[in-house]
Amino acid sequence: MTEKTEKTGGWRGSREVWLDAAREAFVTSGLDAVKIQPLATRLNLSRTSFYWFFPDRAALLDAILADWEATNTGSLERATQSYSETIAEAVLNLIGVFLDDGPFETRLDLAVRGWAHQSDDVAARVHAADAARLSAIHDMFARFGYSPGEADVRARTVYLTQIGYISMQVRETMAERLARVPDYVMTFTGQAATESELARFRARHKT
Q: Would you tell me how many other CB atoms lie within 10 Å of the CB of residue 109?
């Protein structure tokens, strides 16, 4: 994590500083690590400064969930709506979200899913997020002429494959992951990506 004190404005810090520290503590050490005093110590701020930005710990935890929804579900939905001339290109846009340099935070997703096992409310938000993500991918396939049933199955194939990567904490080098991309595109869509589509994809991800 970057040094948060560099972002601290004045003696209270900022809402972003507290939220970033809480999210990092949550991802690296679990829910019990998200406590006000340890965060204050970590940030070299007073405990009371926390209350300028959040009324209590519950509000901070809710902010972590809202951030997760905006970051992960939001980035996936935007990818499915990005301009693409073919379904292969659309799927490449989506695959790019999940790469190491993409906006989807896999560690945060894994941590929230673990939290859902402890909280019915969090589980409900995870289920809602999964439904929204699947719906966005389904609509992407439907936009390219796939029938509702086929769009549903292909959406599930794409999404559940990625969630499997996250849940199993698969470790691959970027080269290994990218080598599989053309075959993933074929499997997910039934169509091959063109060389120009793959070249643009690699250029975006600097490979």
A: 22
Angle between helices 106-116 and 148-167 in degrees, nearest 10:
90
Do residues 26 and 91 share a domain?
A: no
How far is Cα 165 from Cα 201, in angstroms, rounded to an integer?
20
pTM for the full model?
0.89
Instruction: Find the domain containing 152 and state its range.
Output: 64-204
Torsion of CA 24, 93, 149, 194, to 10 degrees: -150
Query: What is the rounded distance in angstroms from the CA atom of residue 159 to the CA atom of residue 123?
Result: 18
In a domain, 59, yes or no: no
| Number of separate helices (H) and strands (E) present in the chain | 10, 0
Q: What is the pLDDT of residues 113-139, one digit of tens each?
A: 999 999 999 999 999 999 999 999 999
How does pLDDT run across 39-88, given as a tens digit for each residue?
999 999 999 999 999 999 999 999 999 999 999 999 999 999 999 999 99
16 & 115 share domain: no
